[in-house]
Amino acid sequence: MIGYSLAHYEITSELGRGGMGIVYRATDTKLNREVALKILPAAALASEEDRARFFREAQSAAQLHHPNIATVFEIDETIPVDADGNEVAASDGPRPYIVMEFIEGETLQELIKKGPMKLADAVNVAAQVTEALKAAHAKEIVRWRVG
Q: Deepest in the core among 4, 26, 45, 89, taking most CB within 10 A?
């Protein structure tokens, strides 16, 4: 998808992959800013339940406003186009995507690869994750029990 566009988002690099999509770094050409663009892979489009779950995930995440959680800007679906404006894999139909805040910096995975963290740094990361989970729990997006 690098070099392609979805609507007015030009995909520039891949940031990561997960069970519900691939996240790319992209440029929002209307607002001239970098964003994170999560796209549901074509293989997942075979199931309407997967598509519905993807949209539910975006709607839930959009309810969260917290410094430790990326803000959701938009959710939509469209057919990707190449640099010349030609549709790519149009037979797959429109591709659902979520546009989120792009946060510059090191990922937790990159930080862990460097080796053991100092205790103060590990506590700081754990506190940030806990605060984000607490915000999601308050909106009933995640639930947990102690014990």
A: 26
